[in-house]
Design goal:
four-stranded parallel β-sheet; single chain; 5% strand; 71% helix; mainly alpha
Length: 426
Amino acid sequence: MTEIHIVGTAHVSQKSVAEVRDTVDAVNPDVIAIELDKGRFATLKKQMQEEADAASGIVREEDSKAPEVKSILSGNFMVMIVQWLLAYVQRKIGLNVGVEPGAEMKEAIRLAEERGIRLMLIDRDINITLARFWGNMRFVEKVKLIWVLLRSVSGKDDETDELDAVTVDSLTNQDMIDAALKEFHEFSPAGAHALIDERDAYLAHGVVSLEHSSFERAVVVCGAGHVPGITRYREHPETLPSMKELTTLPKKYPWGKIIGGVFLVMFAVIILAIAFSGATDLLVWAIIFWVVLHGILAGAATLLARGHPLSAAVSAALAWMTSLNPFLACGWFAALVEAKMRPPTAKDFKKIGSAESISEMLSVPLFRILLVAAASNIGASVATVGFFLFLGPVLGVDLEMMTNILVTGFTNLWHFIISPFAGLIS
């Protein structure tokens, strides 16, 4: 059996960096296992190389290939925005306490390379984690999360700013961990399950496998919040979910297209009924209300996201039409125009990752492009809901009057449909 030593860390704690170093010094392990996947490991290694180059005065040429906006938009760019916002909040805490996020992982990597110690990556692929995190959350939970993140990045939530080194170091305290985990599970049960519980199991798979390996001594570096879960699974390995269960992407149901289709049918039914009721003036004003409402809200949302005026104009012009087609989104067109007017560069991902304020993030073309896409789509969606909620009051039609119009319209429509067959029936 391999002798396992787990170091539970806070990812922005100087104390955790020292604990990693002290544990490796004391244990002299054959292997160091860290809470990283291949993608995040590559990112940290690149950061370490850049830090070493900066210290040595070395300047390297950047990759000149700009990100493909079309390919990004074809994926779930909302997940990407949430990931950036989460990373920003973590980085903001790190700036407050003077410790860069991931510093303890960098220390583990540095020690392994300096001393020739085997390094193992035991965390789940970040893309799978985020997909399961976002996909399993309820709509209300997603809204709550985005609201909390926006408050944090906008400076409306003072709790992040009040954190200091002592407070952050206390995050490795078991009572603090239990309280934080409980709060997160209450905030979003599904999100906490994907982000914490499932990763507890995935990390435990790596630790249990390591425990039965040929190594003599191993040091495991992971977030303190995962230590209780890993410990439970080590004590009861028979309860571990299968790796297949932990790595399967959630089934994607096209809820957006389904809801869009339902609204399209409702809109078509209302317009058709009004048309056959003889209330042509009402029909004209209903269409005008649809076009204007979508144009105003989609365009305004694009401008609020600091989109280019031309991007806002395109969003406003197309919102009424794309909202009638569940397979199109005005945000896509607005984002493509934004990319044309303010092209993203190869350095954008790096700039987003190093931004120290929300203003800096908004100044990065790639971040603003995706924000424009999201804001424009949200504006159009709100307009669609608002159309059905406020159609009657805006046009001066009460419920009884609208009911009579719809009944008359459907009656006339039915007579129109069966009229060609009237002779045959008689």
